[in-house]
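User: I'm putting together notes for a lab meeting next week and I want to include a structural view of one of the chains we've been expressing. I don't have a solved structure, so I'd like a prediction I can at least talk through. The sequence is below, exactly as it appears in our construct file.
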Amino acid sequence: MKNAIYWLMGEKAGRTIVGTWNWLWGIPVESGGKVAVAVAEDSLQSMQESVQKLAEAVAMQVGSYERAKQKYQDKVRELKKLEQQATLAQQSGNTDAARLAMTKAIQVEQLLPQLEAQVQQAEKFVTASKGQTQPRTAKARAV
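Assistant: Thanks for the context. Below is the predicted structure for the 143-residue chain, given as structure tokens.
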């Protein structure tokens, strides 16, 4: 019967069908046999693809986190610079320039909480994703 399935469906599809049939009926896979080796190779291939996809996703999240963090830090520097400009303009008696700098500073300051929230959320995602890629410790496996 197995040979007929292999002939009809091809070797790879036949191995899959026979392996599935045996699994459904609770027949163990022959140790060291072609079916066992094929099933192991397929499982290994699938795991490698999953690990690769997870690594790519983590890399994308880390990149997103780094961009959000950089944007936040740039805005903090911009805020400090605007505050310094306002102070210098005020000290030199140029109230219009001081008001303009403070208006810009207030706008940047209002944007900072949103950027900080984005950075924190991105950091949580990165931490969670890296936790999935780290090997589990004996304590984690025991739980």
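A couple of points you could mention at the meeting. Helices lie at 2-9, 11-24, 34-91, 95-133, 138-142. Residues 34-91 form the longest helix (58 residues).

User: Perfect, that's what I needed.
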